[in-house]
Amino acid sequence: MEEFAKFRHQLARPIEDKIRELQRHDRLKHMIFGSQLSPEILEKLRRNADMIRNMARSRQGNDRLRQLLPHKRAMLYFTQPSTRTFLSFMAACQILGITCNEVRNPETSSEVKRESRMDSIRMFSSYFDVIVMRSKISDFAECCSYMMNELENQEMRAIPIVNAGSGSDEHPTQALLDMYTILRTFDFDETSASARSRLGRLKEKYSDLKPGPAGKTYLFCGDIGRGRTVRSLAATLAQYPGVRMFFVAPAHEVLKLDAEMKDRLDHQGVDIYEFTSLDAKLDGDPILSQADCVYMTRIQREHNSKETEEQIANIDLAPFKLTPDRVNTLKDYAPIMHPFPRDSVVGEIPTEIDSDPRAMYFRQARNGMWARAALLVHLFDAVDSLYLAYHDVFGRAQD
Amino acid sequence: MEEFAKFRHQLARPIEDKIRELQRHDRLKHMIFGSQLSPEILEKLRRNADMIRNMARSRQGNDRLRQLLPHKRAMLYFTQPSTRTFLSFMAACQILGITCNEVRNPETSSEVKRESRMDSIRMFSSYFDVIVMRSKISDFAECCSYMMNELENQEMRAIPIVNAGSGSDEHPTQALLDMYTILRTFDFDETSASARSRLGRLKEKYSDLKPGPAGKTYLFCGDIGRGRTVRSLAATLAQYPGVRMFFVAPAHEVLKLDAEMKDRLDHQGVDIYEFTSLDAKLDGDPILSQADCVYMTRIQREHNSKETEEQIANIDLAPFKLTPDRVNTLKDYAPIMHPFPRDSVVGEIPTEIDSDPRAMYFRQARNGMWARAALLVHLFDAVDSLYLAYHDVFGRAQD
Amino acid sequence: MEEFAKFRHQLARPIEDKIRELQRHDRLKHMIFGSQLSPEILEKLRRNADMIRNMARSRQGNDRLRQLLPHKRAMLYFTQPSTRTFLSFMAACQILGITCNEVRNPETSSEVKRESRMDSIRMFSSYFDVIVMRSKISDFAECCSYMMNELENQEMRAIPIVNAGSGSDEHPTQALLDMYTILRTFDFDETSASARSRLGRLKEKYSDLKPGPAGKTYLFCGDIGRGRTVRSLAATLAQYPGVRMFFVAPAHEVLKLDAEMKDRLDHQGVDIYEFTSLDAKLDGDPILSQADCVYMTRIQREHNSKETEEQIANIDLAPFKLTPDRVNTLKDYAPIMHPFPRDSVVGEIPTEIDSDPRAMYFRQARNGMWARAALLVHLFDAVDSLYLAYHDVFGRAQD
């Protein structure tokens, strides 16, 4: 884009340099890339999210949460439609007392008046304290964060930028909520009292079981090739040692694991296996019985070319549906995840599964709200206040 | 609808069984049908509404009201457009400190992605604490309430559902606000001090006058056949003893009182009379001079078939206009109501009437706000807190 | 408009009579016309705005601000699209704790149902405590304020009306924020401590320099003929003595200073000069070096007829661009203003200028938020509470 020309050199840098510019010491200034989610950052955000979720259970806790950031005003700039992510951010803001404003119409009056996108964003930054943006334009959020850093260097007003989905590749807060769900599930620790006992009970059956995401097997099923949530989540999980990944997708160029991603994961030390059915076996055992976590996805239709669409329409999707029989073969603790929406026509997860205790997808959606609230507390550098509030409510800081 | 198939048996039950499922003891869990508004429930909601309205008069009272439910987040899911009902619910929420979120676009991205409606609603229930929904699909709100009850039975997160207008038949909160207006008007008690005296004064002229909706004559005029507000209100009023109803409508199949409704009201013991002009007489006296309450409606145009539209266009609507001369024949205390909007071209209520003290329609709209706030307090089981707050502000609970 | 017929006589009165009706003693009841912004009212609003902005710097100040009007609910009725003004009002409301509601779709369901506009507005006034309206219909806001006054006279509920842009002529809150920016700039007093010294330093170079808008030279450049912001601002500045104005516009009928406005300013005692290039000289000196304030505008395209558009497309706009060379000739203190959006294709202010300390346009946008908050405090008669809160935060009322 013409108007991003100014940031050409910054855009061309290796990701490590970019990540460094987006942090201040150990804290994120802007949330732009999934790869900013290091295990250290994830651990910080998980703690925030756990505190927020616990506080939100009581009226008193809720009241304290709304006292954290009521002086902040958020702009939700969603020129690419998204009900789910939008509402999740709205709810996250409201939990913290942040007031919300929105721009959702891609054809704003300003574009008619030939205002540059960067002028619009800077104008918003005059009125608001954080901009959460979702756009079809890949580099837009990234450039905005560079503009903010530049303003900060000139000692002018600058605010955090959050990428809520840009173009077809990055959707870092989805990776965040997926990781939060995984970290919680593999904590085996719903409430601290029953913690040991739950892990203890599970160990009777699964003797090697250890807490945490390391050393586990993740099964991804469905639209592997184009699912940006799969890409981001796999890349993030790959940071943990001893991880094995099963990719289950139709044998179609567009849907299966692409070479570039395979290389990258391989390079990160992941054990990768590809299958074309959920009923496949590895070393004689069904893959479903080996998975510690199942991540289902919808075969996307809205991005297809007409040609691809016809090809995909002819694929038998039965091998990629999580039927009750298949669910029965899963480990007792293996979470069933899905970034949602699920396809009610294809039915990759039939509604009968919804009442299975491992069905995590609605809780996963709700986790999005806690994880995004955790991120906002982090970006606004209000973690100290959160700890204080938590201590006031529960009589001790969370260990 | 395919996706409601699961609830087939529940949908087919008699209304009494449904109503029972929507309550817990004497409290509504969901607000779906006008027939949930029994005199007992109406009396509870009237008390709530009166307290809220009184508190809203002072800054201190307002502050206490906003402390009632600030930890709650509402989703206003209005896929059928409605400015008035929408804003009234927004305002009701804001009075109580509830934060609002909205979905107003019927073509959400999720539908493109073939998400089922029930998935959408369950997803919203992850983020929000009540869903107020207006939809063209008749059974949608009802099915959502059953889904919530099912989740509750499974000890999962469940929230109240409010029907803000579904399909062409149900609009229970409109009936609620109409009834609230009638209950207030026939209380003859604007402030407790001058209460007796006002009723006393009126009794000098209308010796039989008693407080309350029982034993009164209600005149409905305009679009009787298709006005869902008329249907709901008439059915609710029919619960009170000794009620007489005048229906004044053009002699057109589509506009006049339909046989089914007539039967139902008849069965409920209502004395029913039909007329084709506001100037009609009954037992020698003008019907307008006999009415205790006049409920005007707009002849709807947006639901007509082309054929019907032409027929209606040829009807002389003069006999259905509340001209100043006609207003002069009304009883001193008879409220003039209208669910609004009124038709500025037809002018079923000309603007000259607006300054008449009996013109109740703008206050009726404002009552919608109090009545809806009252309903939310009831659904969230916060009546105790409301009484406490009222007591703090006024030094005594309302008698 | 048919429905404004009722207000025919009021609409035809001289502006002085209108202004009187819109005030109560020395306070505005409604904000409809730019000419309501007398130097006295401007001074009051400037004080409010300065207090609000100072308080907004701290968490404590922010908390107190949100306690000023949390019991008020605003309706932002923007049937003419406007991102900027809309968001600025939203932010202003949020600063003061006011909850916001909006109608932004010109084709509301009510219009389909033939509701009159005045009925809509009166209905909104049932739910909300102020209506901020932007409409294509010139007299709409004015008529609404008369309706409110009429209701007030009948001792019925009435609320303030704010004109946020009506038709092509009035946009009083834009004039307000422009004036606030000018008043602040010519205060030469960023913080009270360094105040004298800044004016002192400037006086070494510009010996005649005095604080305040009187006696200064204002240069307006661009779309003089149709820019309603230029019209309003020039008319407001003309109230101060000894003012000189330079109008720099292409020599096109539609773009240059029109006769009527020229007459009016002339009548107000302004020294008027017209030029067709920013490089023009007056009395041998470049006009840019003589200006105390430069107000740039965008050549509007969206209002042009096809014919005019072609003519304007052929005009060389180079003489109306504020290039770095031209900026170098400006006085050290001369603010560069622009009502925004700027045209990114024409580039009347190139982005290189953005980091110049005199570039005021983004701060000007932010001033819009403070100025509008100041106006709301004034309209709600909450100035006393603002002073009290300011005193609590800073230990003294602002001098």
Report the total helices of chain A.
17
Average pLDDT number of chain A: 93
**Overall geometric form of chain A:** globular
E-strand count of chain A: 13
- How far the N terminus sits from the C terminus of chain A, by CA atoms, comes to 48 Å
| Beta-strand percent range of chain A | 5-15%
Largest interface: A-B, 31 and 28 residues
CATH superfamily heading of the largest domain in chain A: Aspartate/ornithine carbamoyltransferase
Task: Spell out the helices and strands of chain A N to C.
Answer: HHEEHHEHEHHEHEHHEHEHEEEHEHHEHH
CATH level-two architecture of the largest domain in chain A: 3-Layer(aba) Sandwich
Q: What characterizes the major β-sheet of chain A?
A: 5 strands, parallel
Per CATH, what is the topology of the largest domain in chain A? Rossmann fold
Point out poorly predicted stretches of chain A.
Answer: none
Helix/strand-derived category of chain A reads alpha/beta
- The helical percent of chain A reads 40-55%
What is the gyration radius of chain A calculated from CA atoms? 22 Å
Which descriptors would you attach to this protein?
homotrimer, 399 residues, alpha/beta, Rossmann fold, 2 domains, five-stranded parallel β-sheet, four-stranded parallel β-sheet, 13% strand, globular
